[in-house]
């Protein structure tokens, strides 16, 4: 069997499992969250509070993984929304700014003056940008620079997220779209795959250029929609 086919089968299987169990997992989680909240009102001891917060964090993490699995598994329904790439970036600036600040990272944003409309749901677009920004920041533990640039060509709208972080060697770069592949202690190994799956359903692509010790440039490419909405 072709390697690509095996990968596709694997994803399909993950999707089927995720879709059929997501609710079964989420419902009891909601229960757990609720009862932990009740207990944490009752047991005010510092140590107890600390344990409760750990449980909350872990429950949130399971929730996040289940959501990511759902996106990967089900082909996302391509939305017919049309947005200017700059507007979506602008809406996210406050969040990105505060995240960058936490990582001691400088932020540079350069937006195109051209018309740069794409057909993509805003939620999907934000999720892709956020995943790329998170990866960029997590690669810059000792600080650095994050830049977000939008550009157009005749056919495409591009959004580049560039960091001056640790970069990736080829053997990592080759595996970044493998489900659950992560080099991080707390990673899910699903972020880039989520980006790719979403972009796939809109005729978009994701390119990664990386150099160890220098940094990484992640480029989202989407078909350019000529008219404004
Ligand atoms: P996660 O972030 O949960 O590990 P991702 O799918 O987002 O999962 O990324 C997979 C892996 O790719 C990361 O663990 C990391 O090793 C590598 N990676 C992704 N983006 C970058 C980046 N900007 N710089 C360096 N390494 C990266
Ligand atoms: Mg990630």
What topology does this entry show?
Layout: H1 3-42, H2 46-73, E1 82-84, H3 85-102, E2 105-110, E3 117-119, H4 122-138, E4 144-152, E5 156-163, H5 170-173, H6 191-200, E6 205-211, E7 215-223
Parallel strand pairs: 2-4
Antiparallel strand pairs: 1-3, 4-5, 5-7, 6-7
The chain binds adenosine-5'-diphosphate (ADP) and magnesium ion.
Magnesium ion binds next to helix 4.
Q: In words, what does this structure look like?
A:
The chain is α+β, with helices and mostly antiparallel strands. The protein has helices at 3-42, 46-73, 85-102, 122-138, 170-173, 191-200; strands at 82-84, 105-110, 117-119, 144-152, 156-163, 205-211, 215-223. The strands form 2 sheets. A 5-stranded mixed β-sheet has the order 2-4-5-7-6, with helices on one face. A two-stranded antiparallel sheet has the order 1-3. Helix 1 (3-42) runs antiparallel to helix 2 (46-73). The mean pLDDT is 91. Magnesium ion binds at residues 131, 134-135, 191. Residues 20-226 form the Histidine kinase domain. It is found in: Cell membrane.
């Amino acid at each position: 069997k072709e390697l690509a086919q095996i990968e596709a089968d694997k994803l399909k299987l993950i999707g089927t499992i995720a879709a059929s169990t997501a609710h079964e997992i989420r419902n009891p989680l909601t229960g757990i969250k609720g009862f932990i909240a009740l207990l944490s009102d009752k047991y005010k001891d510092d140590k107890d509070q600390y344990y409760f917060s750990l449980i909350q964090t872990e429950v949130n993490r399971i929730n996040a993984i289940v959501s990511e699995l759902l996106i990967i598994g089900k082909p996302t329904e391509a939305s017919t929304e049309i947005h200017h790439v700059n507007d979506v970036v602008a809406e996210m600036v406050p969040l990105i700014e505060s995240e960058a600040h936490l990582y001691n990272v400088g932020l540079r944003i350069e937006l195109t003056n051209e018309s740069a409309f794409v057909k993509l749901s805003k939620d999907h677009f934000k999720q892709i940008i956020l995943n790329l920004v998170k990866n960029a920041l997590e690669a810059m533990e000792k600080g650095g620079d994050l830049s977000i640039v939008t550009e157009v060509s005749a056919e495409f709208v591009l959004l580049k997220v560039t960091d001056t972080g640790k970069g990736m060697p080829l053997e990592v770069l080759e595996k970044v779209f493998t489900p659950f592949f992560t080099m991080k202690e707390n990673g899910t190994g699903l972020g880039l795959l989520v980006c790719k799956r979403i972009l796939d359903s809109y005729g978009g692509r994701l390119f990664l250029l990386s150099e160890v010790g220098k940094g990484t440039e992640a480029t989202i490419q989407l078909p350019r929609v000529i008219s404004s909405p």
